[in-house]
Design goal:
Helix content of chain B: 55-70%
Largest interface: A-B, 52 and 46 residues
Structural class of chain B: mainly alpha
Number of helices of chain B: 16
Shape of chain B: globular
Distance between the termini of chain B: 55 Å
Number of helices of chain A: 16
Distance between the termini of chain A: 6 Å
Oligomer: heterodimer
Order of helices and strands of chain A: HHHHHHHHHHHHHHHH
Strand order of the largest sheet of chain B: 1-2-3
Shape of chain A: globular
Radius of gyration of chain B: 26 Å
Strand content of chain B: 5-15%
Largest sheet of chain A: none
Largest sheet of chain B: 3 strands, antiparallel
Strand content of chain A: under 5%
Order of helices and strands of chain B: EHHHEEHHEEHHHHHHHHHHH
Amino acid sequence: MLNYLIRRVFYAIPILLGVNLLTFALFFMVNTPDDMARIHLGVKHVTAEAIGRWKIEHGYDKPLFFNARAAGAEKATDTLFVEKSLKLFLLDFGAADDGRDIAHEIGNRMWPSLAIALPTFLVGLLAYISFALLLVFFRGTPLDAGGVILCVALMSISGLFYVIGGQYLMGKLWHWFPISGYQPGLDAWKFLLMPVLVSVVASIGDSARFYRALFFEEIGKDYVRTARAKGLSELRVLFRHVLGNAMIPILTGVVVVIPRLFLGSLIIESFFGIPGLGSYTIDAIQAQDFAIVRSMVFLGSLLYIVGLMLTDISYTLVDPRVRLE
Amino acid sequence: MIKLVLLWSDLLVLLLLWTGAGLAWLARNNETLRGPWRQVLGSRMGASTALVLAVYAGIGLLDSIHYVERLPEVPGKAAQYSGEVRSALDALLAPLRENVEKTYSAPFATRLYAKETVQGADGRETRDYPRLRHGGAHLADPERDFWPDLRLRSGLGMLAGLLVWSLLAAAASASAGPASSRPPGRAGGATGVLLALCLTAGLLIALAPYYHVLGTDKVGQDVLYLSLKSVRTGLLIGTLTTLVMLPFALGLGIAAGYFGGRIDDVIQYLYTTLNSIPGVLLIAAAVLVVQVQIESHPELFDSAAARSDLRLLALCAILGVTGWTGLARLLRAEALKLRELEFVQAARAFGVGHGRILLRHLLPNVMHLVLITVVLDFSGLVLAEAVLSYVGVGVDPAMFSFGNMINGARLELAREPVVWWQLAAAFVLMFVLVLAANLFADQVRDALDPKSRGRT
C-alpha cells in the first residue's frame, strides 16, 4: 500500500503542474500584469510610470518564462512563473495585494471555516443517510412518494433562498441566533449553529434523493433476498447489509470532500460574516486580488488530490476485496 | 419604424432552434427515437412539465427578438436609431415597462411605500403616503373602489382564461380522437397545468396594466416586468452552456474510450486536472479574466446591451469549458464498453474507418446519456447563475437576471415593513422553472435510460 501511495504522490505532480500552468496562463498571459495594474489603479488616467511602479511594488516586473537579463541559472528561475507559480509547491503563497502574508491569513482563517464545515459535513451525512434509509424502509407507501416529491421540491429552491430565509426567520423574526458575525472561542456556537443548520437543510433534497437511489440499487440484489429469507428483520437488513454494501459508492462521493472542508464554503461564510477561508476567497474575487485566488486554486487542487488518495484508502477499510498495489 | 438587431446570443438561440428542429425532423419517422419521447410527453407529469417549460421558452424567445427604434427624423440627416435595444417582449409589456413609480410599492398597492410631503386640496402640506402614479391610478377613491375593482377585473380575467382553456382543451381532445381510442393513462394529460396557466395569464393580463401585481422595486420598476425579463437569462445559461460543453464532452469522452492508450491518458489527465480545481474558483478566475478584458477594451461594444450580452456568452462559454468533465467521463466509460461489442468489432473487421465507426456506431449509442445529462444539468445551471451573480462573477450587474434580482432584494428584508415582493417574485419564477425542469428530467431519464426503467 505504501508503494501505491508513493506512486500516487508522483502522479499528483503533473496534475498540480497542469493546474499551475492553467492559472498562470489565465492570470499572467491572457491577462497581463499591465491589465492587472490598470484595474487596481483605476482604468482611466493611468500613466505608464504608475503601472511600472505598481508592478515593481508587487513583484510583477519580471518576464514570464525566460529572463534574458539575469545571469546563469537565474535566467530560468528569476521569472514570474517560478516566483509566482512554482513557489506554490513549497506552500509559499507570497503576499496579497494589500501586503499581508497569505499563508498567515490561511492559518488564521481555516479554523472558523473548519468550525462550520466539519459539523455541516457530519450532521449532513447523518441526516441525509437516515432520511434516505427512512424513505427506503417505507418504499412503495405514500410516505416514500411524498418524501421523494419533497426532495425534488427542496432541490428546486436556490441555495440563496435557504440562507435568506434562515436569516430572516431564525435571526430577525424569532431572535434565536444573531443574523451574522463571528466570535472566536467558546461563544462561537451561537454564530455557528444557524449556518450549519441552513447548509444542512439546503442540500437535503439533493443528497437524500441520491442516497435513496443508491440504496434502491442495492435492495434489489440477491444477497438482500437471502438475508430476508434467513428471517432477518427489515431494519437489520437495511442497516447491516444494504448500508454496508452501499458504503463504496457513498465513500466515493464523501471522502473526496473531507480535505477540502478547510476551504470552507464561499456562499455560507460570506452571507453569515464568518471570517473563514471562503469569505476570504470571495473578498479576493470581488477585490480582484489574483494572488489570493491563485493560492486558493492551488490549495483546492492539492486537497482534492489528497481526497482522492484518502478515498482509495477508505475502500480498503470497508471492502476487504480491495487491495491497493 | 424599427430595425431588427441580432445580438450574438440571439444568433445562438436561432442556431439552437434550428438544431432542435433538425433533430426532430430526422427523428420524425424513426420509431426507436420517437418512442421514448412519446412516452415522456404521454405521461401526465411529462406533458405538464413540458408545457410549463414551453411557456418559459416562449417568454425567452419573445425576449430574443431584438430591435432598435428609429428616432424622429431630422431633415437633411440619415436615419438615426435609438441606442436602446428592445425586444418583442418589451413591446408586449410596454405598459409594465413604462409604468415606473418613484420607489418601492407593495403588490396591488395604490400608495407609495415611503411617506412624502404631499400638498392637500386646501394647500396645507402633510406627511403621507402619496398615491402611485400608475398603480391603481384609475380609481377615484382607492379606499372605497379598490376591492370592487379588483374583484371585477380578476373575475373577468379568470373568465377569459377559463374560456381560452376550454377552447384549447376541446381542440386538444378533438385532435386526439375519441376518448375510447386513446391509450390508457393519457386521458388527463396536462389539462390541469394548462388550466392553471390560462387562469394565471388571464389574471395577469387583466390586472397588470392597472396595478403593480408584484409591486415595484427600489427605483420604481415593475417587479413582474423584471422577473419576466430575467427568464431569458436563466434559460440561456441553461441551454447555451450545453451547446459549448457538448463538443468537448462528446469528442474527448468518446475518443478517450474508443482509442484508449496514449490518447486516453492525455484526455484523462486533462479532465482530472480541470476537475481538481474547485468549480466556483475556476469559474471565478476565468470570469475575472474576461471581465478585465471587457473593461480594458470598451471600444469593442457599440451598446450596453451588446456588452452585457457578450459577458453572458462568456459566462456560458466558461461554464461549458469547465463543465464537460462529468459527461466526458460517462461517455468514456460507455465507449470503452461499446468498442468491444460485436457490431463495432464487425465494422472494424470490414475495414470501416475510425471516423465512420465513431459517427455511425458509437455516437447514436451514447446519445441517451447525452440527452439525460443535458436535461439534468439544465436546472443546476439555472440555479448556478443566481449564486454566481451573487458572488459577483455571474452576468453583468445591469442585466436582468434572477441572481441580480435576489442580490438587489436581499438587504431589503431588513426594512420595516419588510419589502418581500421582489424576493417572492424571483423565488416563485425560479422555483416553477427549476421544479418543472427537474421533474421533466426525471421523466426523460426514465424513458431513455434502460437501467432506470421501472424505478421511480
